[in-house]
Amino acid sequence: MPQKTLVVVVGPTAIGKTALAIQLAQLYQSEIISADSRQFFKEMHIGTAKPSAEELAQAPHHFINSHTVKTLFSTGDFEVEALELISDLFKKQDILIMVGGSGLYIDAICNGLDDLPEIDLNIREQLNKKLEDEGIESIKNQLEELDPEYYAKVDQANPQRMIRGLEIVLSTGRKLSSLLTANKKERAFKIIKIGLNTDRALLYQRINHRVDLMMEAGLLAEVKSLLPLRQYNALNTVGYSELFNYLDGLTDLPSAVAMIKQNTRRFAKRQLTWFRRDKSTIWFEPNQIDEITDYIENELKV
């Protein structure tokens, strides 16, 4: 019986992960599981760089438009739901493709999450109030002071994850970074990890161009339509926060767009820092399709 294999495609935003995942899904007549923490949400489209309708039609996708921003969908929830889906899909095929730039969600499937201690819900409430009253910068500054290691790798545009780090240290006195022990849980399937990257100047050029395309596609109108939902944590993210600031009159539009580009470049740098720590990931340029498929074929024989 052939071994069940999950091919995982990772890398920074705008590098071309979606295109590669679709090519691999078509090659292996497989399905794609998204591990992008923003593409889950059905209300957010342009700013999350979701696959287009044409791309979605080229291969079956899962965890795209699967949840609403009104519902908290945690990394732990994703681990449970995605593993259940993977188990079901492996009943009819031997190879599946997982793709995404959210390192914690990738790790949840490949390695499993650590069992974290119970936290004081009053502290969570206080931190949420602090976020509401003082903004995300106050949360960033406190996390950087109390757990600089976790701060260095967390998505700093995601207040929910930063609050998670703060509530752990404030509730237990122990840093979340010290509790993420990476005790790997055994999975019932083989995992092959492909990383995509390129020259930094070229990557940043791709990021800037993508932001321009998003604006041309109507990102500002999308953000305006989401004003009634802006209190939900999912919308406190790059591409949305900056335009909310513009709509609030805190900046002009060119400055907001420039800030989206800058914050996205910073996010890409953090993504690479996260993914590079995993020595089992083999890195390629986005256009090295033949080399990537040769590598996968060789790994499938092992």
Keyphrases for this structure?
302 residues, alpha/beta, Rossmann fold, Histone, subunit A, 2 domains, six-stranded parallel β-sheet
Structure in words:
- It contains 14 helices and six strands.
- It has helices at 17-27, 53-58, 75-89, 103-110, 121-134, 136-146, 148-153, 159-172, 176-179, 200-217, 219-225, 241-247, 253-276, 289-301; strands at residues 5-10, 32-34, 61-62, 95-99, 190-196, 281-284.
- The chain has a six-stranded parallel β-sheet, sandwiched between helices.
- The longest helix has 24 residues, at 253-276.
- The two termini are 14 Å apart.
- The mean pLDDT is 92.
Strand line-up in the sheet with most strands = 3-2-4-1-5-6
CATH homologous superfamily classification of the largest domain: P-loop containing nucleotide triphosphate hydrolases
Number of domains: 2
Backbone CA Rg: 19 Å
Provide a count of the helices: 14
Q: What is the CATH third-level topology name of the largest domain? A: Rossmann fold
Instruction: Name the poorly predicted regions.
Output: none
Shape: globular
Element pattern in H and E: EHEHEHEHHHHHHEHHHHEH
The chain-level structural class is alpha/beta
Q: What's the architecture of the largest domain, going by CATH?
A: 3-Layer(aba) Sandwich
Strand content: 5-15%
* Strands, count: 6
In CATH's first tier, which class of the largest domain applies? Alpha Beta
Major β-sheet annotation: 6 strands, parallel
* Mean residue pLDDT: 92
Spatial separation of the terminal alpha carbons:
14 Å
Percent helix range: 40-55%
